[in-house]
Inverse folding.
C-alpha cells in the first residue's frame, strides 16, 4: 500500500504554523509498515490542490487530505476535490443536523454559510467520533481518500480511530498487526539505542521505532503474524524484558501521561499531594490538574515567587534564605515541609531554581534547580542542572519532579506504613 | 515570484524527524512577500523526485531543494536533478579540493565515494559560506534552483546568506513590501470576517490573511508599492481603523504574548499581581512566569482545589461557600480579596469554575467559570460559559482572565489613583 498526505492551509505555507499532523500520521503509518511516499503542503489555491490531487490519484492507494473543511471562503478542499473527482456535492442531513445542534448548544444563530459544512461528495462516509469534529472517507476507483480537519487534536483523533485501522487491515491481507508504544523518561537517546539494538537482534520479527517527544522518548514496537494472540503475547514479553532492562525509565505502555500515572498511584495509595513552586511557576499544578478528577488527591499548590511569600506562606526560616539562598537544597526542604503543613497532606513536591535567562551565577548557573520531595516520614532533596531556554527548563523541572514522585510511589516502602 | 520547496529524506517521510527547514524558509519568504505555493516532502525515491521537480519547473520561478547532497547511496538529488534538467554532471575541482582538505583536517583517508560530493550539474554556482557545508545554485530557463543540505543549521545558514537576498532583489523589481500581524482575542471568526471584508473593500491594494491560533486569531496585512514610507503609513492607518472597529479585541501588532503585555503594563504602572486559581489549576501563574523578569510584578499564586484551602489560605467565608457554592461570583470575589491580602498586592485575579468532564449540573454546566478581578479600590466579577474539553476550558479561562486584566490596565482609570 502506497499513499500520500496533502496538507492544506495558508498558515502552513506561510511558515506561521508547522504542520504537525503529517509527521504524526507518517510515524504511525511507517511503524505499521505502510509506505508513505510523499507529503504535499499547499495553501488554499484551488488549481494547485486539484493538480496535486490528480497526480496523487495516479500513484497512491490512499490519500489523506487535511484542512479546508471549515465554513469560510478559504475552505476549498471539499468542493475542489468533488470537481476533480467529477462527483456531485450532496447535502448530508445528518451533518446538517449536527451543525445545528452544535450552534444551539453554543447559543449561536444559524447562518447561510454554515450550510457549506454539510456538503460532501456523493459516496462519502461520515467519520464522526461524537465530539465537535467530523471528517469523511471516500472510495474512488482503487484509492481510499480520507478528508480530515486541520486542527491537530481533531485530525489525530480521527486518524487513530478511522484511518489507521482500515488501512492496516487492507494492507496486511490476512495478517494481523500489533503495535505498542512505550513511553520513556530518564535515559539518553544513546542509552535507548543500545537497548533497542539488543531487542532487534533478539527479535528480528519486531520492528522498533524511537521517537524523541520532548521531554520524553517514545519507543514503538510493531509485529505482524497470523495470530493476534501470539503477537500480543510476544509484545507482552518484550515489554517485560524492556521494563527490566530500562528500570524505572519506562513510564508506561499506553497514552497515559506522567501526571495521570502519579494521580493513579496517589489514589490507589489514598495519599494526597500539595505542591510549592518557584521556578516552575505553576506548571506542576497545571499538569496535575489537567487530569479529570485530580481534586481527589491534589489539594492545591502555591507559587512563591518572592522570598517574602516563601517565609509567610511556607514558613521558610529567614536564616535559611539568608544563609543558603532561595535556590538551595535547604530552601527546597523547608518549602516541602511548609506546603505539607499548609495543605495538610502527607506528600508534597517543592521546587526552587533559576529558569533564566538572567539570574544565574558561576556557582548557581541558569538551569540550577533543587527539588524537595516530602513523604509522610521524611523529606528528600535533589540537585539538578538543566540546559535549555526558560520554557524548556520549566518543562524539565516539572517533568523531573513528577517523575521522582512516580518512582517513589512505585517503590512505596516509605508510604506503605501510612 | 512564485516558488516551492522540495524537501528530501527518508527520515522526513517516516515521521522520525519533522522537517523544520521548510517552515523556516516559508516564514521568511512569506514575510518578504514572496509567494511559496507548495512544499513537497519526499523520501529518497529517484522517480518521484524527478516527477516532482519536473512539475515544479512548469509552475515555479524558484525551487529550493533540501537534502540528498551527501556521499551515500541514499543521496540522490544531484544526479537525479541533472538527469531531469538534461545537464551533464561535472567534477568541480574547487569542491574536490575542499573535500580533501576537510578529510585531512579530520584525519580521515580518501575514499572513492567522496568523489560524488564534488559532482554538480553543468552551470552550477557553488554556495560556500566557508564552513563544512556547501550548496549550489543553478539558473534553468526562467527558474532559479537552489540545492541545500538537509541539516537544519546548515540549510538555514545557506538560505539566509545565499537564497533569500537574491530572491528578494529579483522579486521586488523596484517595489517594496510591508507586512503587519495583528493579534486578536474576543471576537469570533465570523465577526472578524465582517471586519476584514470591509477593510478589503475599502483598501483593494492590501491583502489580508486570517489565521486561527487558539485561543487567539491573527490577522496579517500585506501591502506592496514603490515607497516604503507610504506603505508603512497606510498600514498605520489601517491598524488604527481596525483598532477602532475591533475595540479592545486588538491585543497588539507584533509577536508579544498576552502575558508579556500584561507584564509590561503592570511594570509601567508599578503594580504587583497575585493569582488565586481553582479550575485553571496553575495555568495563569504558569503563563505569567513564562515571561523573563516576571518576578518584578508577579508576587505569586495559590491553587486552591479544595474548599478547605479556599477557607484557610484565602479566608473565603464558609457561609459564602455554603450558600453560593465554590463556583460562584461571591466565591470568586472572596478569593480575589483573599489573595490580594495574602501576597500584599494591589491587583489580583481569581478564578473558580468547572473544567469538566464531570462536576457539571443543569444550573452550572461544565465550562461555567467565575472570574474575580481585584483592583486597588474594588473587586469585579464576571460569569463565563466556555465550550470544549478540559484543557480548552482551562486555556480559555486563563486567556479570558489575563485579557480582562489587560483591558482594565489599558483603561487604567481605576488604577491611576494608585
Amino acid at each position: 500500500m502506497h499513499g500520500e498526505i496533502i496538507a492544506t492551509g495558508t498558515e502552513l505555507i506561510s511558515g506561521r504554523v508547522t504542520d504537525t499532523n503529517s509527521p504524526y500520521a507518517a510515524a504511525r503509518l511507517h511503524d505499521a509498515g505502510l509506505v508513505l511516499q510523499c507529503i504535499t503542503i499547499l495553501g488554499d489555491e484551488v488549481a494547485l490542490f486539484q493538480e496535486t490531487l490528480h497526480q496523487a490519484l495516479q500513484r497512491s492507494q490512499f490519500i489523506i487530505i487535511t484542512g479546508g473543511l471549515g465554513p469560510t471562503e478559504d475552505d476549498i478542499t471539499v468542493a475542489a476535490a468533488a470537481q476533480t473527482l467529477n462527483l456531485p456535492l450532496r447535502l448530508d442531513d445528518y451533518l446538517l443536523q449536527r451543525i445545528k445542534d452544535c450552534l444551539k448548544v453554543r447559543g449561536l444563530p444559524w447562518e447561510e454559510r454554515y450550510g457549506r459544512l454539510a456538503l460532501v461528495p456523493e459516496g462519502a462516509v461520515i467519520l464522526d467520533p461524537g465530539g465537535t469534529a467530523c471528517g469523511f472517507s471516500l472510495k474512488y476507483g482503487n484509492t481510499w481518500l480520507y478528508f480530515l480537519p486541520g486542527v491537530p487534536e481533531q485530525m489525530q483523533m480521527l486518524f487513530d480511530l478511522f484511518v489507521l485501522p482500515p488501512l492496516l487491515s487492507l494492507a496486511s491481507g490476512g495478517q494481523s498487526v500489533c503495535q505498542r508504544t512505550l513511553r520513556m523518561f530518564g535515559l539518553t537517546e544513546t542509552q535507548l539505542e543500545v537497548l533497542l539494538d539488543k531487542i532487534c537482534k533478539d527479535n528480528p520479527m519486531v520492528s522498533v521505532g524511537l521517537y524523541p517527544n520532548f521531554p520524553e522518548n517514545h519507543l514503538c514496537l510493531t509485529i505482524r503474524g497470523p495470530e493476534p494472540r501470539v503477537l500480543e503475547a510476544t509484545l507482552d514479553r518484550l515489554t517485560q524484558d524492556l521494563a527490566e532492562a530500562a528500570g524505572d525509565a519506562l513510564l508506561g505502555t499506553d497514552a497515559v501521561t506522567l501526571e495521570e500515572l502519579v494521580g493513579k498511584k496517589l489514589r490507589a495509595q489514598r495519599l494526597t499531594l500539595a505542591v510549592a513552586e518557584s521556578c516552575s511557576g505553576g506548571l506542576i499544578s497545571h499538569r496535575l490538574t489537567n487530569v479529570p478528577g485530580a481534586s481527589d488527591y491534589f489539594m492545591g499548590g502555591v507559587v512563591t515567587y518572592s522570598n517574602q511569600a516563601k517565609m509567610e506562606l511556607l514558613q521558610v526560616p529567614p536564616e535559611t534564605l539568608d544563609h543558603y539562598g532561595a535556590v538551595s537544597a535547604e530552601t527546597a526542604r523547608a518549602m516541602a515541609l511548609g506546603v505539607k503543613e499548609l495543605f495538610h497532606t502527607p506528600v508534597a513536591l517543592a521546587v526552587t531554581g533559576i529558569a533564566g535567562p538572567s539570574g544565574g551565577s558561576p556557582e548557581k548557573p541558569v538551569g540550577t534547580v533543587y527539588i524537595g520531595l516530602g513523604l509522610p516520614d521524611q523529606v528528600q532533596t535533589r540537585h539538578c542542572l538543566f540546559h535549555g531556554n526558560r520554557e524548556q527548563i520549566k518543562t524539565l523541572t516539572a517533568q523531573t519532579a513528577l517523575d521522582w514522585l512516580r518512582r517513589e510511589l512505585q517503590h512505596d516502602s516509605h508510604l506503605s506504613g501510612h
In short: The radius of gyration of chain A is 26 Å.
